[in-house]
Design goal:
heterodimer, A: mainly alpha, 5 helices, 0% strand, elongated, B: mainly alpha
Chain lengths: 158, 426
């Protein structure tokens, strides 16, 4: 499981680097096109927005793997021993349940929007909403794996 | 009932150490499911809509602009210029830190990035010249605070997007407060240096100022391009950010030539990660705010305050106290994301200018970055210098006091924020 997640992390990193680069490219081209060629690109803004959505949702597991999500550790960071472990386990469980909800509802969104077309590019909105369940799935797997590591450590230490 | 459940739920989950985005989302989902009987699909929907926004795309672009420049080697050029300007005065290097902080803030939109950049560039040299390491660390942390006040600013982009306030106006509004903060920190540094006999380095020479200025003029052009472009109607703030990023890339690679193509993936990934961190909170807060609005919380809070006081100044002082506390707990952008939908309607009902309110919040949260025990910039310098936060805290007190005085001044004389946007923005 750990190895698969590491591999996924590398792939996701490459993808979000790519989506960011394209986002910058299209937004910049939009300005250039307007002034140099005096023609506005109709789809560049929409495309950048959708790339942004994908970047953010695929970024979720990448950030989670680095433990980088903003959190308030003022209280939980002060706990020691068994209490700290209990708190972490509970925190992971909340996170995993929430991510599971996001996956289920995300899939529902994808299904509902399959007939809906985006205004400029006229692609199915499902392609954009698909970022939610996929990003949240990998984030959930990451959290499950972290939780397992935590539980295993407890057994080893006791 | 709904109100208390959502607030308490949020606080309980938050203090468990769960990521803020999840704490916001999960507490909202519980309320939706248990009390409001609203299908949970709203959770995915609201998260999506808040991320699907063109104005937020400015966030990663401004991050890239600053990162391209600093990888490109702009920091030492800014340091050289600041050195030529103020290095010869008493406490020269501490002044250099404050001035470089202001310059760097003009190409970077984040306090932590500003602190990290000047910290790596300056702390060793200060130590070599006989400054106490903990003092050096404190000056750097304080000098970095202006990062989100002087334009461009990630936090201002976030506020502008949420509050529908012009991001261009926000940038102009941050200019004088940033200058005020920087100058007052210079004064503090000067007096401490006098007292401890930290001597200046070198002498002031006009040719040297010109020479070092030429070296970094390309970097200092950036805010002019951004603000000029937005106000000239040439591009939108997001497009301005993209132009700034491409400009930064160009300067870093072809003018300063220290940014190598091999660095690019790393720089871009860093920006993507930092953006995701902010946007996850934005997504959760959008859902949370939607529930609060449905439960008419901002309205009720407004009535409550109206019963308490109709004096906008009293309200602003209360908000300042609240923000100072919250700013020590969470990142500035996250605080803006969560609190703006709640506080802004109240501010509006008291006749407070939303532009002023936004910049004041940003100034306040910038100070939160160095407020002990857990200010973000304190962590950054503590990581660079390996000095425990408690030691830095002692040295940072005079700076903190000066900045708090600035905050009071800004809150009382609102023109400090509003005069520049009024003059230039019209």
């Amino acid at each position: 499981m750990q190895r698969i997640l590491d591999c996924m992390d590398r792939i996701l990193q490459k993808i979000i680097i790519g989506t960011m680069a394209f986002m910058l490219f299209f937004t910049f081209i939009q300005v250039v096109a307007r002034y140099l060629f005096e023609s506005s690109l109709v789809y560049s803004e929409e495309l950048s927005r959708y790339l942004f959505v994908w970047t953010v949702f695929l970024g979720l597991p990448v950030v989670a793997k680095r433990g980088g999500h903003m959190a308030v550790t003022a209280l939980s960071g002060r706990l020691k021993g068994a209490a700290a472990r209990m708190m972490s386990v509970a925190a992971y469980l909340v996170g995993i349940v929430f991510m599971a909800t996001m996956i289920v509802q995300g899939v529902e969104m994808v299904q509902r929007t399959s007939q809906q077309l985006s205004p400029a590019m006229e692609i199915s909105m499902s392609w954009v909403y698909l970022s939610i369940p996929i990003g949240c799935l990998f984030m959930m797997l990451q959290m499950v794996s972290d939780l397992c590591a935590l539980l295993r450590k407890k057994e080893g230490g006791a | 009932m709904i109100l208390w459940t959502v607030f308490l739920g949020f606080l309980v989950i938050l203090f468990m150490g769960v990521p803020i985005g999840i704490a916001l989302g999960a507490s909202s989902a519980i309320v939706l499911y248990a009390f409001m009987k609203i299908p949970l699909i709203v959770v995915a929907q609201r998260m999506f809509t808040s991320v699907d926004s063109f104005s937020f795309i400015a966030v990663p672009f401004f991050m890239l602009a600053g990162a391209f420049m600093s990888y490109g080697g702009v920091t030492k050029r800014l340091v050289n210029f600041a050195h030529a300007l103020v290095g010869a005065l008493a406490g020269g290097l501490a002044l250099v830190v404050c001035v470089t902080g202001m310059f760097f803030a003009a190409i970077s939109g984040s306090s932590a990035a500003t602190t990290a950049a000047i910290g790596t560039a300056m702390i060793d040299e200060m130590e070599r010249r006989g400054y106490h390491k903990s003092f050096a660390a404190a000056v750097v942390a304080a000098g970095g605070t202006v990062g989100i006040v002087i334009p461009p600013s990630i936090t201002m982009v976030v506020y502008g997007s949420i509050a529908s306030v012009s991001i261009g106006d926000m940038f102009l509004g941050g200019f004088l407060p940033g200058l005020l903060m920087g100058v007052s920190m210079c004064f503090v540094s000067y007096f401490i240096a006098k007292k401890r006999n930290y001597e200046g380095v070198g002498s002031i020479s006009f040719p040297n100022i010109v020479k070092t200025f030429r070296e970094c003029v390309w970097a200092l052009m950036m805010p002019i391009i951004i603000i000029g472009g937005i106000y000239g109607g040439i591009f939108t703030p997001t497009e301005a950010a993209a132009v700034a990023a491409v400009y930064g890339l160009f300067i870093g690679m072809f003018v300063y030539r220290e940014l190598r193509p091999a660095d690019l993936p790393k720089v871009i990934l860093e920006a993507a990660i930092n953006t995701t961190m902010i946007m996850f909170v934005v997504g959760g807060a959008n859902l949370f705010g939607w529930i609060l609005t449905n439960a008419q919380v901002p309205h009720k809070l407004g009535l409550y305050f109206a019963g308490l006081t109709t004096n906008p100044l009293v309200f602003l002082m209360l908000v300042n106290l609240l923000l100072l506390f919250i700013g020590t707990l969470i990142n500035a952008s996250a605080a803006v994301v969560i609190l703006t939908p709640i506080l802004l309607p109240v501010a509006l009902s008291l006749g407070i200018d939303p532009l002023f309110f936004g910049v004041m919040m940003v100034v306040n949260l910038a100070i939160g970055c160095i407020t002990p025990p857990v200010g973000l910039d304190l962590f950054v310098v503590s990581a660079i210098t390996k000095i425990p936060i408690e030691t830095v805290t002692r040295e940072i007190t005079p700076y903190l006091c000066a900045l708090l005085a600035d905050l009071v001044l800004i809150t009382y004389f609102q023109d400090i924020i509003l005069i520049v946007p009024r003059m230039l923005g019209g």
